[in-house]
Design goal:
The chain has about 450 residues and is mainly α. The chain has one domain. The chain has 18 helices and two strands. It has a two-stranded antiparallel sheet. A hairpin with a 2-residue loop joins β1 and β2. α2 crosses α4. The longest helix has about 30 residues. The chain is globular.
């Protein structure tokens, strides 16, 4: 009789280990002299930090991408962004299909876990569609960005920049090559360029709604009533967050960071600033010049993030929707949760509550550590922590000043934020069986 192995590689552990291996390989490559412009070795911890930020499509950086990394280093970053964005299991599956290798049940179950699908059937078909649509959307982004970049930078450099920024935006990574105009400047030089800002914003939004939603839109086109419940919730909440955030940023910064802009530029900047915090990491205005209200609004949007099964991070739009509706039902003493004429199960409600609770505790613990270890204010530490755990990449400029301990904390936050905190914690825990005996129920006071 064979003994059961003490350490079994469950699906969550395989996904976690896959991302960790990819980050380690990327970190080693980035530490090599060939990856830096100066031809010198890059500190291994800093290289792993950067590899984590790219693979987890975050965007927090220690070095300016253009001024520090060589073309080889930038291509390594771009590769990690693309793999991290659409998922390493998607890449592995496409290689298997290319070499005409049969996709087994175990791999299909991994795909379901990695992409956020809710059913095993049609996993490979969805993966093919994900890759085709990703490349098509990124290609459209390249064409639109090249219209602006090529006349300004020259054809080869402009096209290269268009490819890099299109992939980075679609994968919600937030890495840019605008350091040539000023280190860590991001897209501040294009705050009045509607083509660049709206193209980047559209790529971010499309990448952040999730692969399952794409599939619904592709299948049912504009027939909203035929969409699945998940797609309906994601699209409605995403629309409300983008529109509501844009209006608030416009009001908060009208005489602040947007002062001196004309009306079109103000609207353009407000929309971009509303989209980007939901896990992209680009900024078209200097974040240090924002009002306190806008900083807090940015933190809220970063914490919410994008949608499940997408390139985005955060607690996700569906979790937010469930918590809001659950609070409303509790106040009305309604027992079942119904949305768009569909009832949500108790497991879904519990999972949403668990995700938000875990994220809140992780943010609180990490913020406390940063405030203790680094000479930073509470606001700056909270902003950086939420940016990391939500895989956003926006910063108030304190990331390059962090010591080793703070960098490790941020690495853990980015990593767990990308693979999912429940997946991350499950990969670290052992197998747990519920006791066969039901314990007595006793009420406690709540609220």
């Amino acid at each position: 009789m064979s003994k059961e192995p003490m350490f079994r590689f469950s699906y969550t552990r395989i996904i976690t280990a896959g991302f960790a291996a990819l980050i380690l390989c990327g970190g080693v490559l980035l530490s090599l002299p060939i990856s830096s412009r100066t031809g010198e070795w890059t500190n291994l911890l800093d290289a792993i930090f950067t590899a984590t930020s790219t693979t987890c499509v975050t965007g927090l950086i220690i070095y300016d991408t253009y001024t520090h990394w060589s073309v080889f280093g930038q291509l390594v970053l771009l590769t990690l962004i693309q793999i991290g964005g659409i998922g390493f299991m998607t890449i592995i599956t496409m290689f298997s299909l290319f070499f005409k290798r049969k996709i087994g049940l175990h791999e299909r179950q991994l795909l379901v876990q990695a992409t956020g699908m809710m059913e095993l059937g049609g996993a490979v078909r969805l993966i093919k569609r994900i890759v085709k649509m990703s490349l098509a959307i990124e290609a459209i982004g390249v064409v639109l960005l090249a219209i602006r970049f090529c006349p300004q930078m020259g054809f080869k450099t402009g096209l290269y920049n268009a490819v890099f920024h299109s992939v980075s935006a679609f994968c919600n990574a937030g890495f840019d090559l605008m350091g040539k105009y000023g280190a860590f400047s991001s897209l501040t030089g294009y705050s009045g360029d509607v083509v660049v800002c709206m193209t980047i914003a559209a790529l971010i939004a499309i990448g952040g709604i999730g692969f399952v939603v794409w599939n619904d839109v592709w299948t049912h086109r504009l027939h909203f009533r035929q969409y699945g419940l998940h797609a309906k919730i994601v699209l409605v909440v995403t629309g409300i967050l983008i529109a509501g955030g844009a209006v608030l940023f416009f009001l908060f910064e009208y005489d602040g960071a947007f002062a001196g802009m004309d009306l079109v530029e103000r609207i353009n900047s407000a929309i971009f600033q509303s989209v980007s915090p939901r896990t992209a990491g680009f900024n078209s205005v200097d974040l240090t010049g924002l009002t306190e209200a806008s900083i807090f609004l940015t933190i809220i949007l970063m914490f919410i993030g994008g949608s499940s099964g997408s390139t985005a991070g955060g607690i996700k739009t569906t979790s937010l929707f469930i918590l809001v509706v659950n609070a409303q039902n509790t106040a009305r003493k309604t027992h079942s949760m119904v949305a768009f004429k569909r009832r949500l199960g108790d497991d879904t409600i519990k999972r949403a509550g668990a995700i938000v609770t875990i994220y809140a505790f992780a943010v609180a613990a990490a913020t406390l550590i940063l405030c203790t270890m680094e000479p930073v204010s509470f606001r700056d530490a909270l902003f950086e922590t939420v940016s990391a755990i939500g895989t956003v990449g926006l910063t108030l400029g304190i990331t390059p000043t962090f010591g080793a301990t703070a960098k490790i904390v941020i690495i853990i936050l980015m990593f767990a934020g990308r693979v999912g905190w429940i997946t991350f914690l499950l990969s670290l825990s052992g197998k747990h069986n519920d006791p066969p005996v039901e314990r007595p129920v006793e009420k406690i006071m709540v609220g």
